[in-house]
Design goal:
Porin, two-stranded antiparallel sheet, 10% helix, 15 strands, single chain, mainly beta, eight-stranded antiparallel beta barrel, 2 helices
Length: 261
């Protein structure tokens, strides 16, 4: 995304936050930690130039896949840690505006279902992925990628808005929506073979539901569930002349403290 487009996207939100700050009755900061449960990731892309496969059993002579040939696979991720820091303004009894930064990292569990040009590579020797290779390496593509290794790291800045269901008790349920910008650092290296080591950024959004428990006038305990998704990022493969679109989504469960000033 270009900087002009990014500015057009966030200038209205920043303006609203500025107005909110001027009208705010209360300023606060909050911190939270939790766990992130990601969905499986669909890695879908194309070859950016022609690719000649290695010559292995079942693929002799080698195949030449032209530029634009589709390539894809699925990636299963482990549950990751989540950290979040926020600065916000209580606009009135019910509405809050907030800037949030959060960080998450998911380790790769395994990759499955590698296909290129509609050909399932699972049971084909992994030498097929190395242009110019002659002879079997002794491990299939499916076995090579099944051991996982690698991670996806996410850094996100959100502009959030919350509606607090204010009442006479110490418990205040709330709902929230946010839009932001997320940088994803993709590192896939099954069996030590670097498939992807690249990063990209894109718009992201989140929805949240939570509850605040008033400990005293200055401190609230918070607990929340957030769903985070966004636009696809595009990264280049280190092993193959290909680029892949990747779009992680996750539910995260967090607890923390909110300090009111």
């Amino acid at each position: 995304m270009s900087y002009p487009k990014l500015l057009k996207t966030f200038c209205p939100a920043v303006l609203l936050l500025s107005v909110g700050f001027a009208q705010a009755q209360e300023f606060y900061v909050s911190g939270a930690l939790g766990v992130s449960d990601p969905d499986d990731v669909d890695n879908e892309g194309t070859f950016t130039s022609s690719f000649t496969t290695g010559a292995v059993t079942g693929v002799t002579p080698p195949l030449t896949l032209p530029s634009g040939t589709p390539i894809e696979w699925d990636t299963e991720l482990d549950t990751g840690d989540l950290w979040a820091l926020s600065i916000g303004w209580q606009l009135n009894e019910n509405f809050r505006a907030e800037l949030e930064w959060n960080w998450t990292e998911w380790d790769v569990d395994k990759h499955t279902g590698v296909t290129a040009g509609g050909i399932d590579l699972t049971d084909i020797d992994a030498g097929v992925l190395i242009s110019g290779n002659t002879g079997d390496l002794g491990v299939t593509v499916g076995n090579l990628v099944a051991d996982g290794n690698g991670s996806i790291e996410s850094n996100t800045i959100f502009v959030n808005g919350y509606y607090d269901f204010a009442n006479d008790s110490n418990l205040t349920p709330y709902l929230g929506l946010g839009v932001g910008y997320r940088q994803l650092d993709i590192d896939y290296r099954p069996g030590g073979a670097v498939i992807i080591d690249d990063d990209d950024s894109a718009l992201a959004y989140q929805a949240s539901a939570g509850v605040l428990f008033e400990i005293n006038e200055s401190i609230d305990l918070l607990a929340a569930v957030n769903y985070i998704a966004g636009e696809e990022v595009t990264v280049d493969s280190s092993l193959l002349p290909a680029e892949l679109d990747i779009e992680p989504e996750d539910f995260n469960y967090r607890v923390g403290l909110k300090w009111n000033f």
